[in-house]
Amino acid sequence: MSEERKSLNFIEQIIEEDLSNGMSKEALRFRFPPEPNGYLHIGHTKAIGISFGLGEKYEAPVNLRFDDTNPAKEEQEYVDAIKKDVAWLGYTWDKELFSSDYFQQLYDWAILLIKEGKAYVDSQSSEAMAEQKGRPTQAGVDGPFRNRTVEENLDLFERMKQGEFEEGEHILRAKIDMQHPNMLMRDPIIYRVLKKHHHRTANDWCIYPMYDWTHGESDYLEQISHSLCSLEFKPHRELYDWFLDQVVVEEKLRPKQREFARLNLSYTIMSKRKLLKLVEDGVVNGWDDPRMPTISGLRRRGYTPASIRKFVETVGVAKRENVIDVSLLEFCIREDLNKTAPRVMAVLNPVKVVITNYPEDKVEWLDAENNQEDASAGFRKVPFSREIFIEKDDFKEEAGNKFFRLKLGGEVRLKNAYIIKAESVVKDAHGEVIEIHCTYSEDTAKRVKATLHWVSIEHALKAEVREYDRLFNDEAPDSHQDKDFMEFINPNSLKHITAFVEPSLKEAQIGDRFQFQRLGYFNVDDDSTAEHLVFNKTVGLRDSWAKAQPKPQQNNAPKKQNMPKRKAIDVIQQLGKKYTNLPDAKQEKVKAEILKLAKQVSYDELAPLFNTAVKKVGTRIAVTLVLGVLLENGQAKNEEIDAFITKALEDKNALLVQFAQGL
Fold first, then answer.
1. Nearest to 109 by CA among 17, 166, 174, 155
2. Would you list the domain boundaries of the chain?
3. What is the predicted pLDDT for the residue at 144?
4. In whole angstroms, what is the distance from residue 354 CA to residue 66 CA?
5. Do the beta carbons of residue 154 and residue 114 sit within 8 Å?
6. What is the pLDDT of residue 3?
7. How far apart are CA 415 and CA 53, in angstroms?
8. Which of 178, 184, 275, 283 could make a disulfide contact with 140, Cβ separation 3.0–4.6 Å?
9. Cβ pair 223, 240 in contact under 8 A
10. Where are its TM segments located (predicted)?
C-alpha cells in the first residue's frame, strides 16, 4: 500500500474504491445541506470542511442545499447567515439549492407511493401512533387506517394539500413493516399538515415533507454521489435506501449515504435549540456574540478562516464520537495570528510612570518592529515622552528574586525604547501606588532581565477592550442529567476594560487583528467607531485556562497527580473489554464500578458506543449497564436506544440478553 493510500481517511477510501469499481470521476458530486433554523456553529465546520474538502481534492462540484422543510423554525435570516459563513471560510459552492425547490416533485412521488399501495393517510392521534408503533423489544401493530383504499388515501391526501384539515388531524405514512426491528422502518411519516408561512414558497403549501423523505430524494434529484452526514443518521440509512428504492431509475446515479463522527468541543454546547435559548434569554448579545461557538461569533471575536480550517484538518475524519479540547482551537488561532498579526502596544490596567530625567517637552518617535515573524512587515513609529503608562501588575515596590519586572531600585527595558530604573512612588490616600518615578538611561546595550510594553500618556488613545473567557465553566455543560446547562454559565465570561493604546491604532478598521504585546491577540469589534475604539480579546498568548484550574490535592502518589484524569466513559470502555473473561466475583465488582461511573456519563458520550461490534460483547454489556442508569435518571427512550436494545436482546451472550431485558 502506498504512502498516499495510507493517508486517506475512511471516506476518501470509500470514494477511491467506487472510482476503482467503475464510477466516473465526473460523476462525483457532494453537498452541504444545512437546515436554515439557526446560525452555523463550530461543529458544522467539520461537515463543511469534509464536503468542500472532497470537492477540492477531486475537483468535483459541491452544492449548498438548504433543507427547508419546517417553516415553523426557518427564516431567510438564517439562509443569509449560512451563505456568509461558508463563503467566509473560503469555500465556493457550485449550485445554491433548496429542498423547497422539489416540493412539487416530492408531492408527485408521494402520490405514486399511494397509488402503489406503499403509503396511506393515518388519522390517529400522535399518542395512539406511538403506542401501536411498539418498542424495540415489542413488534408494532397495524393501525386502524393502514388498509384504507387507494382512492380514499388519494382523496384525503389531496384534501390535506388543499388545507381542509387542521394540524395533527391527518398525516401521510409510508407503508413498510410495523414489525421491522429498526423502528424507523415502522411506517414512518412522510407528510404532515403545517399551516405556516414558508420563507420561500409563502403560503403555496400547507403540507410539508418530513426530513427523511426529503433528504435522500433531494440527493437523488441533484445526483449527489456521496451523501455524507453525522453518526446519528446511521440508523436512518436503511430508510434512506428504501425511499430511494421507490424512485430511482437504472440510468441515473444512486446516492450513497455514509456517516462520520460529529465535532464535539469541550466547554461548549452545539445544540441550536440551546444556543437559541442563550440568545433569547439575553445571556449573550445575539448569535454573533464573541462568546458563542457560532462561526459568526468566532469571526467577530477575531478568528480567521485559516485557523478554523486548520483546526478541522487537525481533528480529522473519524467513525467514532469524541470530544475535542477547546484548547486545540485556541492553539490554531494563536499559531495563525502569531504569523500574521501586527504587534502593537496597549495597556489594559494602567499605572503612571514619570521619567524624571527626561525633558518635559520632548517627544521622540521611535522605530518599532511590526512583526518579528514576518520580515516584510516593516516598522512603524511610536511616540515616547516623559510620562507613560505601564501595566500595574508589572510593578511591585518590593519583590523577591523571581519577580523580574519593575521594582524599586530595579531596572527594566521599555520595548523599542530605553532602560528605566524605579526610584520612588507616589501613593493616594488609600496607600495605592498612583505614580512611579523613574530615571532612564540611554545605554540600551545594558543587559536587563525584563522588557515591558508601554504607551505615551500624551499620545495614547482611550479604547474599550472586551475581554472574553469561556462561556461555561464546566467541561461538558449539557451532559448533566440532574442539572440544566444554564447552571454552568461563567459569570466572568465578559469584562469591559478601559485601556490605552498606541496612536497607530487610530486608523484601525473593523475586523483588523493585532497582537497587544505581552497580552494576547485582539481584533477591532463591529461596534468600533473612529471616536470610540472597541477591541475584542481573541485569545491569550498562551493557554492560561489550564493554569487557572484547581490543582489536585496532595497525596502519597505524586506521580499520579501529573496524569490527566480519564473520562468516565473511557474507563467504562476499558472495564468492559475484559468483562466476559472475568470470574463471577470479579464481574460483580467491575459491574458495581461501572454503575458508579455511569453517573458521570452523558447520553451524547454513550450513544456512539451503541454501534459497537457484536464480537465486543463485554463493551456492549458495559453500555447496557450505563444505559440502565441513564434511563433510571430520566433519559427518554428514542429510536437509537430502542435499536440498541433490540440488537442486544438478539445476541447469543446470555448475560447481555439478561441485562438488556432489564431495560
1. 174
2. 10-100+215-261, 102-209, 272-340, 343-480+488-545, 568-661
3. 96
4. 61
5. yes
6. 39
7. 43
8. 178
9. no
10. none
C-alpha cell at 122: 393515518
> Cβ distance 82 to 47 under 8 Å?
no
Helix or strand (DSSP H, E) at 347: strand 346-347
E-assigned strand segments in 131-206: 171-174, 189-193
Specify whether the CB–CB gap between 458 and 421 falls below 8 A.
Answer: no
Q: Known catalytic residues?
A: 35, 262, 272
The predicted-structure confidence for 154-175, as pLDDT tens digits, reads as follows 999 999 999 999 999 999 999 9
Backbone angles phi, psi at 477, to 5 degrees: -65, -25
pLDDT of 580: 83
Predicted confidence at residue 5, as pLDDT, reads 45
Tell me how far apart the alpha carbons of residues 118 and 106 are, in angstroms, rounded to a whole number.
Answer: 15
What is the largest distance, in Å, between two alpha-carbon atoms of the chain?
101
DSSP state of 134: -
Is domain 343-480+488-545 annotated with CATH 2.40.240.10? Answer: yes
How many Cβ atoms from other residues are within 10 Å of residue 253's Cβ? 16
Say which residue the cell 446519528 belongs to.
232
- CB of 640 within 8 A of CB of 646? no
For the record, the C-alpha cell of 344 comes out as 502593537
Give the class (CATH, top level) of 102-209. Answer: alpha beta
Cα 49-55-56 angle, rounded to 5 deg = 85
Query: Domain 272-340 adopts which CATH fold?
Result: Glutamyl-tRNA Synthetase; domain 2 (1.10.1160)
Sign of CA dihedral 475, 479, 483, 489: positive
